[in-house]
């Protein structure tokens, strides 16, 4: 399944929601700077790019997944890599909050990136910055827009599972139990065959039925021909009098306008609640705060296989604390058909 469709739709959300954010999210005010690693890790961008480029050869959906990961990080206590923290005795992982559970992807890829970055510049680049860079690079690799990513975020030492449940869109509450009445009937039939009534509810389908692997404006065109997969997407166009109708029409006819809006919104989103200076930390291993990495004997990267795998050592109670970093595939049918 590929996913640039929702990302495209999400530009509307980004423009509408993130556009309303206060000035403190501006790059200068947040203290971030695209040249932050110029002297300390000059090749960080190309290192991140290389890992993602390789992964996306066999898993093109990963590009969308990584963009979404940055969003799901930023909307819960800021862009601080809190989403990457695994369950431990002191951390309740955001990964198992309903909007993320069985839905977020890319944790393994972030670990692969971190492994490569640590080899080149140990202890310098934060996991939060890796998420921000990965989002931009994924956009470019999907033939979408590029932008200079403001950098210098530090990683949190906490996570907030409750906030993840409150701040992030939960697919269970978004996806309708009934198909959108405005849907194109042929498309509806296709969805019904993919997701039959009383089926197992675990089928996957493209969010963008026209150009699923490409970052483009087609999701808006799809809405105009009533082929929006999620009801909440189709309503952006089909709700009479909604202010989003003109945005859909604009972006559908002018890809450049869409790209510009997306870039500005991604930069703005990337400034939410960042930790800088000497606050927070640069995690050695993205799934654990540094004190726990030491306690658990982590932070050692397996450079042999180059796969970013981590040595997990038991802490004596038989629990290796290896709860995360895995990549669950996406869950249920987005539309339960009748
Ligand atoms: C209120 C805002 C939002 C809602 C309601 C929403 C809803 C959703 C839903 C229901 C899914 C499917 C999840 C699944 O099946 O497991 C999804 C996927 C996705 N969303 Fe959002 N989203 C929102 C905002 C955003 C934003 C701001 C971005 C980008 C910055 C984004 C990027 C994506 C991407 C790329 C995917 C596909 C991920 C993949 O295939 O792994 N979303 N979204």
Automatic annotation (TrEMBL):
Protein location: Secreted
Residues marked Transition state stabilizer (site): 68
Q: Which UniProt keywords apply?
A: Calcium, Disulfide bond, Glycoprotein, Heme, Hydrogen peroxide, Iron, Metal-binding, Oxidoreductase, Peroxidase, Secreted, Signal
| Annotated EC | 1.11.1.7
Binding-site residues, Ca(2+) 2? 208, 211, 216
A GO biological process this protein is involved in?
hydrogen peroxide catabolic process
The signal peptide here is 1-27
Residues holding substrate: 169
Q: Could you state a single Gene Ontology molecular function term?
A: lactoperoxidase activity
- Enzyme class comes to oxidoreductase
Function per UniProt: Removal of H(2)O(2), oxidation of toxic reductants, biosynthesis and degradation of lignin, suberization, auxin catabolism, response to environmental stresses such as wounding, pathogen attack and oxidative stress. These functions might be dependent on each isozyme/isoform in each plant tissue.
Question: Which protein is depicted?
Answer: Peroxidase
């Amino acid at each position: 399944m590929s996913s640039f469709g929702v990302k495209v739709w999400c530009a509307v959300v980004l423009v509408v929601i993130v556009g309303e954010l206060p000035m403190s999210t501006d790059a200068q005010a947040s203290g971030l700077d695209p040249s932050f690693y110029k002297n300390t890790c000059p090749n960080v961008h190309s290192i991140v790019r290389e890992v993602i480029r390789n992964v996306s050869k066999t898993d093109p959906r990963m590009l969308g997944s990584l963009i979404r990961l940055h969003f799901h990080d930023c909307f819960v206590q800021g862009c601080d890599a809190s989403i990457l923290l695994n369950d431990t005795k002191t951390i309740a992982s955001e990964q198992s909050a309903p909007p993320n559970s069985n839905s977020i992807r890319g944790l393994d890829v972030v670990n692969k990136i971190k492994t490569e970055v640590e080899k080149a510049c140990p202890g310098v680049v934060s996991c939060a910055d890796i998420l921000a860079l990965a989002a931009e690079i994924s956009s470019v690799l999907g033939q979408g827009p590029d932008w200079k990513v403001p950098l210098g975020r530090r990683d949190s030492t906490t996570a907030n599972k409750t906030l993840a449940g409150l701040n992030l869109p939960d697919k269970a509450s978004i996806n309708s139990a009934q198909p959108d009445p405005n849907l194109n009937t042929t498309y509806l039939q296709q969805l019904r065959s993919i997701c039959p009534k009383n089926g197992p509810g675990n089928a996957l389908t493209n969010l963008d039925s026209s150009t699923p692997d490409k970052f483009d404006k087609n999701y808006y065109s799809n809405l105009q021909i009533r082929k929006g997969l999620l009801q909440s997407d189709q309503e952006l166009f089909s709700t009479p009098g909604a202010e989003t109708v003109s945005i859909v029409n604009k972006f559908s006819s002018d890809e450049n306008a869409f790209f510009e809006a997306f870039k500005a919104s991604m930069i703005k989103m990337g400034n939410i609640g960042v930790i800088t200076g000497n606050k927070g930390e640069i995690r050695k291993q993205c799934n654990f705060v540094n004190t726990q990495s030491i306690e658990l004997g982590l932070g050692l990267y397996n450079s042999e296989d180059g796969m970013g795998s981590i040595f997990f050592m038991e802490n004596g109670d038989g629990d290796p604390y290896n709860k995360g970093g895995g990549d669950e595939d996406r869950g249920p049918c987005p539309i339960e058909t009748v």
